[in-house]
Amino acid sequence: MKKMAFIGLGVMGYPMAGHLQNAGFDICVYNRTHTKAEQWVKEFGGCLAKSPKEAAEGCEIVFLCVGNDNDVKQVVLGDNGVFAGLSEGAVLVDHTTASAELARDLHSLATLQNKHFIDAPVSGGQAGAENGVLTIMAGGEEDIFEKVKPVMNAYARFSQLMGKVGSGQLAKMVNQICFVNTVQGLAEGLNFAQKAGLDTDKLIETISKGAAGSWQMDNRGKTMCAREFDFGFAVDWVRKDLSMAFQEAEKIGADLTVTKQLDGYYEKVQQKGGNRWDTSSLIARLDD
């Protein structure tokens, strides 16, 4: 049983760490809300640490899944951070959706300390994490990726090395750009169907088999029609992700005109009190 650590037990990290423990790895967890770590140990076993440093000590691989750049810095850097406890030759795998710039900075710092870093944001949402079928897009050295890939298979159905460090985060930005545009098209189509008096259950069953089909239609179509949004990937979080994509687009000269318009629509959803609604709540804007 290889000793590993998992830092961050939110809606994604909690089940991901559980899959690792159930796969036979010896997992030590850390969460800033200590009671959540206690709950995890009670459910899955393993052990809990009082700091990221303590969790990382003696581990071959440390996995991280928190909220944003600042959260990553808080648990990785400093006297009680992951790097302070991580041994030479060990690997930090960051599943947080963060900036490519931060990934490059952490890789440089790890290299100076004879340690390794992989940026590995995920797609698949809470359901993907709970069912162990996430998609992982990674950036880093190929040999290090090949070392951690079999371990990540505990909660992923597919993982791909996209290139050098930072490439995983850039790929995740593309993922977010594509899916919000898909959601908007679905919102407009389903709103049209409801106003036209169509049976939306039959509609979704039918057109999901053709060119209009998508993950969003299969998993969010019916709940969008019912205006149910109290689950899933929050509007606040997608706007955080898109803001990083916009920053990168400025650097590389990429046109995100339509995506910026959709970000404005999400801002209107927030103004309706939908900060924590699922991203499929774009359809709610069309009710005004």
Describe the structure.
The protein has 288 residues and is of the alpha/beta class. It has two domains: 3-164, NAD(P)-binding Rossmann-like Domain (Rossmann fold); 170-287, N-(1-d-carboxylethyl)-l-norvaline Dehydrogenase, domain 2, CATH 1.10.1040. It is built from 13 helices and nine strands. A six-stranded parallel β-sheet has the order 3-2-1-4-5-6. Helix 9 crosses helix 11, helix 9 (167-195) packs across helix 12 (235-252) and helix 12 (235-252) runs antiparallel to helix 13. The longest helix has 29 residues, at 167-195. The protein is globular, with a radius of gyration of 20 Å.
Helix content: 40-55%
Approximate shape: globular
Secondary structural class: alpha/beta
N- to C-terminal distance: 56 Å
CATH architecture of the largest domain: 3-Layer(aba) Sandwich
**Percent in strands:** 5-15%
The CATH H-level superfamily of the largest domain is NAD(P)-binding Rossmann-like Domain
CATH fold-level name of the largest domain: Rossmann fold
Poorly predicted regions: none
Order of helices and strands: EHEHEHEHHEHEEHEHEHHHHH
Could you tell me the number of beta strands? 9
Query: How many helices?
Result: 13
Average pLDDT, rounded to a whole number, is 97
- What's the main sheet like? 6 strands, parallel
Task: Provide the spatial order of strands within the biggest beta sheet.
Answer: 3-2-1-4-5-6
Class of the largest domain in CATH?
Alpha Beta
Domain count: 2
Radius of gyration: 20 Å
In short:
The chain has 288 residues and is α/β, with parallel strands linked by helices. It contains 13 helices and nine strands. Helix content is 52%, strand content 14%.
